[in-house]
Amino acid sequence: MFGLGQSAGKSWLGTVRFATLLALALALVSPARAQDTHLPVAASFSILSDIVKAVGGDRVDVTTLVGPDQDTHVYEPTPADVAKISGTKLFFVNGLGFEGWMPRLMKASHYPGKLVTVTNGLKPRTMVDEGRTVPDPHMFQDPERVKTMADNIAAALSRADPAGSAYYAERAKNYRGALDDLITWANKQFAPIPPARRVVLTSHDAFGYLGQRFGIRFLAPEGVSTESEASARDVANLIRVIRRTGIKAVFMENISNPRLIQRIARDAKVSVDGKLYSDALSQNPEATTYLQLFQHNVRAIANAMKDNR
């Protein structure tokens, strides 16, 4: 009817079949590809990045600015960081002054996504730092508060990716359950230790929320930030406290220069018990997730406090 020859007809039929098969293949593949597309997000530091990954699962692709064993307090953003976050839809931060460099980064990057402060809705404890009363930003040291942080993360992810809402809610629920188990376990570790012996010396004042949750007094020569410098008077006072009270639980931190703590321990004639993970995960296998970090710290602290007098 259309005047096609036999070979032309076969060629046309082959083209039609190929087009049909291609359309069918695309129809089958496209939904899977849509599901496999990860939501690009960023997190300011390694601990928060791990919590975002725990809630976001395989629906998110997380970029981390301040990595394991790095100090967020003294971090200096680079042009590479601007490039890292430029393609992300959400940028998760701790807030409360923890990322003091954040305003500079936001100004330099003109960040097009949404900034999500995971501590929103939580009431911070206050502390005196260099004569000023400031909020303590280290809420992630309290698993109870981390539960709210996980819920805030799930809510932000759901707004950005409504199709994954049920998925994020389920993962946040499971993570909350793991944190509840962690709190129960930690209480059992600390239970045999009398309140008077629950005293620990660390590098900087990062464990106040942990102390508040479990009735532990943390002493530190440096304040809320590792940028704070311990005065000679403060160091001398700490040494006197150690000698007077018989504190044996003395720790370095993975993000801090150990020399000050080593000097205090030497002058007070006590030994350093090891390392705690304060504001960052570890590059070694001890604390590569937040749950591992918390377990390591609790075990180390509980064992050391048993030797306090």
From TrEMBL:
GO terms for biological process: cell adhesion; metal ion transport. Residues 1-34 form the signal peptide. It is found in: Cell envelope. Its main location: other. GO terms for molecular function: metal ion binding. Keywords: Lipoprotein, Metal-binding, Signal, Transport. One of its GO terms (cellular component) is cell envelope. Pfam families: ZnuA (PF01297). InterPro entries: AdhesinB, Bact_metal-bind_prot9, Lipoprotein_PsaA-like, ZnuA-like. Gene3D superfamilies: Nitrogenase molybdenum iron protein domain (3.40.50.1980). It comes from the Bacteria. Belongs to the bacterial solute-binding protein 9 family. This is Manganese-binding lipoprotein MntA. It comes from Pandoraea eparura.
